[in-house]
Amino acid sequence: MVYTLAQLRGFVAVAEHGHFGRAAQSLLTSQPSLSRQVQGLERAVGVSLFERGPRGVQLTVAGHVFLRDARRILSLSEGAPETARRVAAGRAGRIQVAFISAAALSTLEPLLTEISFELAQLEVALVELSGAEQLQALADGRIDLGLVRPPVPTEEFDAQAVHAEPLIVALPVGHHLAEKDGPIAADDLIDEPILEYAEDGTDYLHDLCVRLLGSENFVAAQRVSQLSTALALVRARRGIALVPRSAAAMRFDGVIHREVAGSSPLVTLHACWRRDTMNPALINVIAYLRARLQP
Q1: What is the CA radius of gyration of the chain?
Q2: Given this structure, which CATH class describes domain 163-267?
Q3: Omega cis (within 30) before 151
Q4: Which helix (H) or strand (E) holds 169?
Q5: Which residues form the HTH lysR-type domain (predicted)?
């Protein structure tokens, strides 16, 4: 089955006007030429699309069905060049974004909202992966953008910090520090059993906790890999935890959160991508992120 867009346009015009002569006038062509086009289309499709009469034509049952598809094909063909231009310019297209679970608490929703506002025709596909899994997926070309904790290997990837927040203290209800109003001094945490992290196979959060208290004052309790596990163990009175402020959004019953007095190390989240990316949509997202996050 081979037919042309010109034949489809001729068919749609005849269907809409119900007359070859009027349809030919609207297309600025001759009636015999239009008639040959429609006949060629009917031969290609293999069915009669019109019932012809002395006063005009009417669509057959098959013609009614074919008209719907013909209009859709013409609409797609007319929009395809502009779609290709938008994709080439990075205003449309698709990017695959991976995120760690902590990003869903602090960054993912506002970041996606802003990107959707700036690049409304961009499709963003999401997948949750650990930081190590994201770096491997980026290297393999399976994702375009990752949301990870540092450090980010700079030989292969580029990165932009997209979120920073302080550490706060998670305490079980009834803990003597939970009874205090206001922020808790870091010195008050000395000798307290503190849950330590190996999040995503790195020591990033653990190192921040040690930096806050000093290695000589850090009393390690259970080792965990997820913030949700840390909060569950706090509730079970297996220790206290230093968590990013956004972790309070999990709202664990039996867990109270307190700010840390003074300056606290900031927990950061980075967007990272391959330096050699050729995806125009991703390049636009990167430019937007850098412009948005400039001091």
Answers
A1: 31
A2: alpha beta
A3: yes
A4: strand 157-172
A5: 1-60
Nearest to 212 by CA among 246, 188, 230: 188
Among 104, 100, 96, smallest CA distance to 200 is for: 100
Q: Could you tell me the residue ranges of all domains in the chain?
A: 5-88, 92-162+268-292, 163-267
Q: Which residue has the tokens 């849950």?
A: 195
Helix-, strand-, coil-residue percentages of the chain, each rounded to 5: 45, 25, 25
Is the domain covering 5-88 a CATH 1.10.10.10 domain? yes
- The DSSP bridge partners found for residue 170 are 241, 257
Which residue from 236, 238, 255, 254 is spatially nearest to 194, judged by alpha carbons? 238
Residue with tokens 């290297």, as numbered in its chain = 139
Structure tokens at 91: 């205003």
Distance CA 165, CA 155 (A): 27
CA–CA gap between residue 37 and residue 145 (Å, rounded): 50
Q: Which two tokens stand for residue 117?
A: 């506002």
Residues 6+ apart with CB under 8 A from 177: 169, 171, 184, 188, 189, 192, 240, 258
Interval 84-122: pLDDT, tens: 555 555 555 788 899 988 888 888 888 888 877 777 677
Q: For the domain with range 92-162+268-292, which CATH number is right: 3.40.50.1950, 1.25.40.10, 3.40.190.10, 3.40.50.300?
A: 3.40.190.10
